[in-house]
Amino acid sequence: xxxxxxxxxxxxxxxxxxxxxxxxxxxxxxxxxxxxxxxxxxxxxxxxxxxxxxxxxxxxxxxxxxxxxxxxxxxxxxxxxxxxxxxxxxxxxxxxxxxxxxxxxxxxxxxxxxx
Length: 115
Fold this sequence. Notes:
Structural class: mainly alpha
Number of strands: 2
Number of helices: 3
Mean pLDDT: 86
Low-confidence stretches: none
């Protein structure tokens, strides 16, 4: 069974910085990345939208594919979007390694914001 690759591989006109793609993000903060529209009211803020939605961003993809892709030893990088997916999965894994050692949600939030 092959690993899951990024759906953003099909975007060919993505700006690269150090072979790292600047993919669209769903945020209110200004920056170099293209901003996506807010979530529709039918989707709760705690859930990720469908991959076909216009509000689906790279962070949603990292969180939805984290569990499936952590079981694979080998991962063929087919483009910059896959590289972002791998770095995102490694980052989430590091965060999850630090959070269980803490006492509460407030302390966990502090560690995530400092990391």
